[in-house]
């Protein structure tokens, strides 16, 4: 690493530390925890060859974060930071460090015909897309209805519009036990179970440990202890 790069990274790290100290006695908000400089620092580590390099941005993250009522603002300052750290940790794992937008080598089109409320459109694949890899016709349909896009007939938009992409991630987070897991005190491990229970029941230690490592890193950056129950 060159001296100039080291100085830039050090400056960003110092900004994060100062920001945490500034808000340590008050209520955190997503914008107060994750500055544009910090998000840009995360993106600076993404390889130029990654599809996510020119897709994910601070604006596409922070706007949807603030629209998700209660995200990063529920409970104490520590709990708020835990939630932002937990969200970003799972995003980093799901996207290979903000590299990927769409699922790599999907195993099927993930159409589940048993969800009659959300009938699959002919020829439309519902594989993982976006920061939390939205998957399945039932998730695309419900997310689209909540956010305002045609998730069943146009699932591709989740990989084309970065704001919608992040909004689907926050929709999933707030509606599928991730938010509640953190604010209720059940810990980071419960968010892993909510997003991919197969990693918990299938003994996939490597995947679980990857999520935990990301979470611990963000907690350090945000100036909080990671708390209990890290693993599912």
From TrEMBL:
Regions that span the bilayer: none
GO biological process: carbohydrate metabolic process; cell wall macromolecule catabolic process; chitin catabolic process; defense response to fungus
Domain Glycoside hydrolase family 19 catalytic: 164-174
Keywords: Disulfide bond, Plant defense, Signal
Disulfide bonds: 50-99, 111-120, 200-232
A molecular-function term among this protein's GO annotations: chitinase activity
Name used for this protein in its record: Class IV chitinase 4-2
Natural source organism: Cinnamomum micranthum f. kanehirae
Classification of source organism: Eukaryota, Viridiplantae, Streptophyta, Embryophyta, Tracheophyta
């Amino acid at each position: 690493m060159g001296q100039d790069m080291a100085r830039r990274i050090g400056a960003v790290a110092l900004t994060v530390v100062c920001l945490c100290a500034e808000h340590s006695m008050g209520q955190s908000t997503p914008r107060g925890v994750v500055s544009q400089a910090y998000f840009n620092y995360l993106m600076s580590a993404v390889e130029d060859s990654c599809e996510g390099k020119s897709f994910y941005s601070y604006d596409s993250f922070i706007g949807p974060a603030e629209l998700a009522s209660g995200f990063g603002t529920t409970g104490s300052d520590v709990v708020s930071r835990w939630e932002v750290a937990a969200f970003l940790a799972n995003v980093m794992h799901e996207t290979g460090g903000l590299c990927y937008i769409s699922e790599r080598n999907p195993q099927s089109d993930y159409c589940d015909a048993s969800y009659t409320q959300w009938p699959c459109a002919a020829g439309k694949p519902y594989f993982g897309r976006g920061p939390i890899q939205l998957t399945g016709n039932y998730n695309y349909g419900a997310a689209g209805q909540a956010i305002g896009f045609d998730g069943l007939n146009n699932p591709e938009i989740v990989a084309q519009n970065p704001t919608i992409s992040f909004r689907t991630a926050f929709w999933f987070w707030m509606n599928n036990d991730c938010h509640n897991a953190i604010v209720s005190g059940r810990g980071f491990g419960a968010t892993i179970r909510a997003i991919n229970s197969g990693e918990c029941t299938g003994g996939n230690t490597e995947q679980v440990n990857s999520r935990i490592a990301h979470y611990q890193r963000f907690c350090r950056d945000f100036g909080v202890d990671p708390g209990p129950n890290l693993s599912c």
